[in-house]
Design goal:
Elements: H1 13-29, H2 37-51, H3 67-82, E1 85-90, H4 93-111, E2 117-119, H5 129-137, H6 158-173, H7 189-195, H8 214-224, E3 227-231, H9 232-240, E4 257-261, H10 267-275, H11 281-289, H12 292-302, H13 312-336, H14 357-384, H15 392-415
């Protein structure tokens, strides 16, 4: 068997001519356009970086240089010629909106270049039609479903259920695309958590609502687009994981990307945040302590004696122990550390990066028990997912187990 290896890409005369043409056309069709030497230098740097296999370029420039037009002038012609996806990652929502709503459309119009554009956002920034439908039904169901109890602190208010219905109607009618950031209604944080879903709570294409899924529609648009604007956090996730529904990358395979990191100085902090783990001890203790209802439901659904090597009473006991240990650790911290009253965000820093010896034993105990609980949640979620796709109760249980798995994984990552 012979393997075809693509020839290395280079900045040839054809590409140079395409970039020059884009720039001169941009000048001619943009009223008040003024040539800036620094912008021209930037176009040269970006052209050399994006046109060559393995090319890299770094540009630092002050406000007013026209950085977005600089990398678009080089990037769009190169992406179209090489049939690769130009991925522009930014550090702020404001810049994403500016690029998608103003800079890129204006650039394409002025240059006459044709390219499809998409904005890639995280899953929780879109309406989940399944969850929204359940949210509307809480009133007729007499409150939250029993197995929702570990995940949410309260049932939705009638006004929130009405908003969920109006949002669903707007999405179904096509007057709204399901993007929470552009919702036609004001959405409270409590309601938002009920009408969206993280990856762990999503049934993917097995979901009964998959044909009406805002996330799947957005993912398809992103995969088909020639220019994609995203944020650093989603980009880092996209580079490390695939789409759990079908194994496809969230944006594109890295080899098919031409990548521009706008506001690249933020990438380091974003990467650190993604690799970090944190949790609110009070909230996590309450939620973990309420897991017994969900645990019992999982065993009933799969009709198995053991999940994750635990019997039902053993799994409930582990969850109860974790909740008790979280509360005890919180109480210990409150006894030994008094934040300064003037601190807006109190932070305790370990001297030389070493935890106090008194903390080691409770943390090791939490690490052991959260490992057991994480293994149980992982096994339970996988087993419940094997059920019939049209079983609404089982699908809801799968969602709740997935969300519980994400909650437990936060603890597991921290204590490990």
């Amino acid at each position: 068997m012979t393997e075809t290896v693509a020839a290395p890409r280079t900045l040839d005369d054809t590409l140079k001519d395409a970039i020059r043409k884009a720039y001169t056309t941009l000048q001619a069709n943009t009223p008040g356009f003024s040539t800036r030497r620094s912008q021209s230098q930037m176009i040269g740097v970006v052209s050399r970086a994006l046109s060559k296999s393995g090319g890299v370029g770094v540009v630092e420039a002050p406000t007013g240089v026209g950085k977005s037009l600089g990398y678009l002038t080089a990037g769009v012609p190169i992406a179209l010629a090489s049939k690769k996806k130009l991925v522009i990652s930014t550090g702020t929502v404001a810049l994403q909106s500016q690029l998608v709503e103003r800079d890129i459309p204006n650039f394409l119009k002025a240059t006459g270049l044709e390219a499809t554009v998409a904005l890639a956002k995280g899953r929780t920034r879109y309406l989940c039609t399944r969850n929204a439908a359940e949210a509307q039904g809480e009133g007729s169901q007499g409150g939250m479903f029993e197995d929702d109890a570990p995940l949410f602190d309260r049932p939705l208010a009638p006004i929130e259920m009405d908003i969920a219905k109006r949002l669903t109607d707007a999405f179904t009618s096509g007057s709204w695309d399901g993007d929470i950031d552009n919702a036609p209604e004001t959405i409270s944080p409590g309601l938002r958590s009920r009408i969206t879903t993280p990856a762990s709570g999503c049934a993917g294409r097995r979901c009964a609502y998959s044909a009406q899924c805002a996330v799947l529609r957005s993912r398809n648009t992103v995969r088909d687009a020639q220019i994609v604007v995203t944020n650093h956090a989603l980009l880092l996730s996209a580079l490390s994981i695939g789409d759990s529904d079908n194994g496809q990358p969230l944006i594109a395979p890295p080899s098919d990307m031409l990548l521009v990191l706008d506001e690249g100085h933020h990438v380091g902090n974003v990467a650190i945040d993604q690799g970090a783990a944190s949790l609110a001890l009070d909230e996590m203790a309450k939620r973990t302590g309420r897991l017994q209802i969900l645990i019992a439901g999982a065993y009933r659904a799969v009709d198995k004696d053991r999940l994750g090597n635990l019997l039902p009473n053993e799994a409930i006991e582990v969850a109860s122990n974790v909740a008790k240990q979280l509360r005890a650790f919180r109480d210990h911290i409150e006894r030994v550390w008094m934040p300064a009253p003037a601190d807006e965000e109190p932070m305790w820093r370990a001297a030389n990066g070493r935890l106090p010896e008194a903390w080691r034993e409770p943390i090791e105990a939490l690490a052991d028990d959260t490992r057991s609980l994480y293994n149980w949640a992982h096994a339970a979620t996988a087993q419940v997912a094997k059920g019939k796709p049209d079983d609404a109760a089982r699908e809801r249980l799968q969602r709740n187990l997935g969300m519980a798995l994400e909650m437990i994984e936060q603890q597991y990552n921290l204590w490990q």
